[in-house]
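Hey, sorry to bother you again with one of my protein questions. A protein chain has come my way and I'm curious about its shape. I'm sending you its amino acid sequence along with the backbone structure tokens. I owe you a coffee for this, so here goes:
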Amino acid sequence: MARRRKLTTGQKLTIGVAALVFLGFAGWLYGGDYLRQRDLAFGRAAEAKVDGPPCPQLTAAEFAQRKLKVTKATNYEGVVFAREFGHMDCRTLRYGAGWGTAVYPACQFTSPNALTVSTEKGKWFFYPGLGQPATIAVPHGEARCVMDSNFRLPG
């Protein structure tokens, strides 16, 4: 039977220092990236935070009765946002005002008139009106709309 050679104190120390350096470097890389991503998430959350009155919500029948059409649709993060007019800007936000790791979509609109939001949990119909900005966030798959937006076109 072959005898295992024992490591010397110097070899054990070298292996220990190398392991610490490796773990420290990996922690520095991962930790630095996490902090950068968290800071970006805080910025996105601040940009998307909008206070305003809730958008008027319609039923599917009321939406059809008014003959509203939403021809501009975008699938963002598995949620379909559709609008009649205007421009939109979407972002993913982290739960917990940027502290969480799970995300949900939020979109801001310049002048949508009519909006629909479709998720696995249902379909929502909103009517902010012509010329009115709106912001829709979809935490936990449920649409929430307010009559204001931080999104503006340049010019």
The first strand starts at residue 57 and ends at 58. The chain has a mean pLDDT of 84.
